[in-house]
Amino acid sequence: MTISTRRALILFLVLTFGLVTGPAASFAQKPPPPPRSGDGKPPPRPGGGRDVNESTPASSGARVIIGEVWVDNWFKLYVNGKPLLEDSVSYRTERSFNAERFKFRADLPMTLAFEFRDFMENETGLEYIGTRRQQMGDGGAIAQFKDASSGKVLATTGNDWRCLTVQAAPAEASCARERNPDTSTAACAETRASVPDTWMTPGFDDRAWPRASVHSARAVGPKDGYDHIDWDRSAELIWGPDLKKDNILYCRFTVVE
Looking at the 3D structure of the chain, how many domains does it have? Predict the structure, then answer.
């Protein structure tokens, strides 16, 4: 082999090796993917987890209080007769299972008044209407309130709350099998209660309202944001007596020291 031939061969080998190893070296220098949790999902965002919305609604009072609420599907909260907070996810959203954590000011005694709603496409109380998944929905709610300074639990949902079912439907479970469900039929009829506009105020007499029905976690099937809250042992899942038929509820409790 001549010198010129040998040099040509060496040059060829150098160029070939460089083309093969160049891209591999570049790939090795790329940053690693972000760490993932044990369930294969990205780590929760700072400030409460991926299913907890945190806020500080405008309010006034001597006490600073932290409230935590999970509802299937939606709520609006009044404190001492004034609106304080609505669920950050619209009531019209199916499978809205986020939790809310919020800090506010109030004076004691403090009347907590919730409007709870389970998702329904129309007054029949059904969801996924017109699909193979057409069915009755089911509700459930849990809440707790703590003194922000001491951490003392001031109130938790339970049987001592008063809850009135304002709208219930359908009248019969067979409604879920109807092709065109409508409240004009006996099976899909709704029941509504008349409630005065002052139902959320401290002076409203709720003694005629039934006590809240307590339901097990197995019956409600809480998920998503529910698991991101450290619930006190006394906090219970409540709703009306029928998780599937009771769609709109008004619930009240007065906190005293």
Answer: 1
